Amino acid sequence: MSKSGAKIGVIGLGNMGGPMAQNLIKAGHVLKVFDLSADAIKRATDAGAEAVATASDVARGVDVVVTMLPAGAHVRSVYLGDEGLLAVADKGTLFIDSSTIDVTSARDVIGQAETHGMRMVDAPVSGGVGGASAGTLTFMVGGAQAAFDAAKPYLDVMGQNIFHAGGAGNGQVAKVCNNMLLGISMIGTCEAFVLAEKLGLDGQTLFDIASTASGQCWSMTSYCPVPGPVPASPANRDYAAGFTAGMMLKDLRLAQEAAQGAKAATPLGAEAASLYSLMEASGNDQIDFSGIIKLLRGTL
Ligand code: NAD
Fold first, then answer.
1. From CA 107, how far away is CA 126, in angstroms rounded?
2. Which of 50, 121, 181, 255 is the most exposed place for a label (fewest CB within 10 A)?
3. Among candidate residues 167, 185, 216, the one where a domain is terminated
4. Distance 41 CA to ligand 1 centre (A)
5. Final residue of a structural domain among 167, 202, 230
6. Could you list the residue range(s) of the whole structural domain that residue 63 is in?
7. Based on the domain organization, do 55 and 129 belong to the same domain?
8. Ligand 1 residue neighbourhood (C-beta within 6 Å)
9. Does 279 fall in a domain?
10. Domain identity same for 162 and 19
11. Ligand 1 atom closest to 100 (CA)
12. Does 207 lie in the same domain as 66?
């Protein structure tokens, strides 16, 4: 079903929300936007959006609101309270929160949205700024089937792969589980390459063997942490991000918070969070997350 020409509010026009808003405009939707940053607003108005003075103003008289904010505290502050989105929007408004946030906040805000007679999904993404610009993001969506069905035409404009992961918060669950596995597998891959180097086996040879053997994983075959075997990987440009170590740390911390709440044993996830916190403590959180190989080599 085409949803061309809907009135959409977007709050959070940063590295991800900015290009996502532009893709909604390109698809023919009419956008009202708000951000705390004047520069971010200007980029959106230059692309054809209408700027309004507050987050609440975005929600008035629109069909859909998309939020793309840094963390759970920002999402709570924008949605909840007397002047929050849920208090001021028309009944039946569809909310799509694409921020990566803690599972508890996602479930709480969606629960409150439903109490207010609204439809809402959590829809965190993977694919980074490149995917946001190209409209090829992967969306991991949690929420009621009817809310997912209503959100899907808009997500299709901003993304390529749209998964319904189950009820409220399950998008965030999918995201933190995937990224915890990614962090662990990247550290394991880095350890193997450092050990091989020290034992006199060059990286290309290890890659040729392990990428077709049982050690094969995405961190090696698509994002190899040593220069050479995968020309597009950040290792070939001195670990310029890509996906920063700081973003990986954020997601690993969210995974730990969720694991503690669920009493799930995630010892390797905890260790991965500790190692990435050393990247942060040493001022290296803005390099690519595969740059953790430098920490393991002792060359940070
Ligand atoms: P960003 O910091 O570039 O953008 C966030 C924007 O939100 C900023 O423009 C900020 O001014 C605005 N903002 C903060 N509080 C606000 C408020 N109360 N009202 C209105 N605007 C407010 O962050 P980003 O890189 O766009 O990431 C957004 C979300 O997407 C995060 O949850 C992040 O974890 C997730 N994410 C990012 C990437 C990536 O590669 N950057 C990839 C996947 C997921």
1. 20
2. 50
3. 167
4. 13
5. 167
6. 7-167
7. yes
8. 11-17, 34-37, 40, 55, 68-70, 74, 77-78, 99-100, 125-126, 128-129, 250
9. yes
10. yes
11. 32
12. no
Q: Measured in angstroms, how far is the CA atom of residue 51 from the centroid of ligand 1? A: 18
pTM of the model: 0.95
CATH number at residue 227: 1.10.1040.10
Query: Which candidate in 152, 175, 250, 294 is catalytic?
Result: 175
Q: Are residues 207 and 285 in the same domain?
A: yes
Nearest CA to ligand 1 atom 38: 128
pLDDT per residue over 239-292, tens digit each?
999 899 999 999 999 999 999 999 999 999 999 999 999 999 999 999 999 999
Kindly report, residue by residue over 181-227, the tens digit of the pLDDT: 999 999 999 999 999 999 999 999 999 999 999 999 999 999 999 99
Closest C-alpha residue for ligand 1 atom 29 = 99
Specify the ligand 1 atom closest to the Cα of 69: 7
